[in-house]
Amino acid sequence: MSNKGRVFSGARPTGRQHLGNYLGAIKNYVELQTKYDCIYCIVDLHAMTTLEELEYIKTNTAEMALDWLAAGLEPEKSILFTQSHVPEVTELHTILSMFTPLGKLTDLPTFKDKVRLQPQNVNYGLVGYPVLMTADITLYKAEIVPVGVDQQSHIEFAREIVRTFNYRTKKQVLIEPQMKNTDFPKVIGTDGKKKMGKSENNHIELALSDEETTEVVKTMVTDPQRIRLKDPGNPEVCNVYTLHQYFSESEQVQEINHDCRKAKIGCVDCKLILSQKINENLGSFREKRNQLSKNPQHIWEILDDGAKRARKIAANTIAEVKSAAGLT
Ligand code: SF4
Questions:
Q1: pLDDT in the model for residue 110
Q2: Which residue's CA is minimally distant from atom 3 of ligand 1?
Q3: CA atoms of 23 and 230, how far apart (whole Å)
Q4: pLDDT computed for residue 152 by the predictor
Q5: Which pLDDT score, from 0 to 100, does residue 81 have?
Q6: How much distance in Å is there from the Cα of 322 to the middle of ligand 1?
Q7: How many angstroms does the Cα of residue 233 sit away from the middle of ligand 1?
């Protein structure tokens, strides 16, 4: 890797990606490759904190990597790998856990949310999640982590652990990661209410066929004021319009805005135009995905190669960390 500045980002293996993943993360990942040395990790160990996902981890990892590659992640430019294939991360997690007060972990709002969501499975991994995340970032000496507004507290917490480690060992071994705020807003799902996500079943998968995309877009909730065709609408409260802003040309967006307010366009036609635009935008992605999916073994080879490159960096960091902590 060069000295362009190192970016790290990880995402849980959630299988086939949807428009929310694309607009909120993947598009940004692809753009960052031109400016930075990027390390992108599929965090399968984190997925284990939710045991229900266990049986899907392998297939979800492969499907997600396939989508990332089809969307433009280039293994020649970036390191793309699976978290558990670099075992040094668990070693660093253990070491950093000694520098992290338990009370702070159990006080985190994200931990309390998890306890509320899965009271039947409050495992140790859930508590240590932010420490493992810190290990993910610092193992590769990443300087920059792209984050949305809702993840800023995690990175702040990671910075705190790094400061504590460096202070207690009196060695500046670990790098305090900087946040790079992404300006991609949260993408709302087809229900028009909640963030797009598989668990909400309100998502539009990137890998759908053109026809399937059209069918899903048809189900999207629009402005509730538009009961009849002659009712003027409010595009600003309609998620179909929001998605037009991502996928349609600006003239088209302006036209829809105007025509919706004047009741000159119906929601059925508006959705049809949207699905056409999504399909046009995703045409090359789908073509590449089809090509890549003909050789699934190649996806694992790319991940293996990424893990080998990641382990070289990890081995150096672990040696430095152990030395600093007196574990020589
Ligand atoms: Fe939404 Fe389009 Fe219907 Fe207006 S015409 S409410 S923007 S779907």
A1: 86
A2: 267
A3: 33
A4: 82
A5: 98
A6: 59
A7: 7
Atom of ligand 1 nearest to the CA of 257: 7
270 touches ligand 1 (CB under 6 Å) = yes
Name the superfamily (CATH) of residues 210-281.
Tyrosyl-Transfer RNA Synthetase (1.10.240.10)
Rounded to the nearest angstrom, the distance between the alpha carbon of 200 and the centre of ligand 1 is: 22
In this structure, how many other beta carbons lie within 10 angstroms of the beta carbon of residue 67? 24
Burial (CB count within 10 angstroms: exposed 0-12, middle 13-18, buried 19+), residue 107: exposed
Q: Judge contact between 61 and 10, C-beta under 8 A.
A: no
Main-chain dihedrals φ then ψ at residue 300, nearest 5 degrees: -70, -35
Output DSSP code: residue 64: H
Give residue 259 CA to ligand 1 midpoint distance, Å.
9
For CATH 3.40.50.620, list the domain ranges present in the chain. 6-187+295-324
Does residue 222 have its Cβ closer than 6 Å to ligand 1? yes
| pLDDT of the residue at 51 | 66
Rounded to two decimals, the pTM is: 0.93
From start to end of the chain, where are the E strands? 6-11, 37-42, 79-82, 144-147, 178-181
Q: Locate 292 and state its tokens.
A: 């890549």
Query: In DSSP terms, which residues pair with 181 in a beta bridge?
Result: 147
Domain with CATH 1.10.240.10 in the chain: 210-281
Q: For the chain, which residues score pLDDT lower than 50?
A: none
Taking phi over 0 as left and psi of -120 to 50 as alpha, with beta for the rest, 170 belongs to: left
**Confidence (pLDDT) at 101:** 95
Give domain 6-187+295-324's CATH architecture.
3-Layer(aba) Sandwich (3.40)
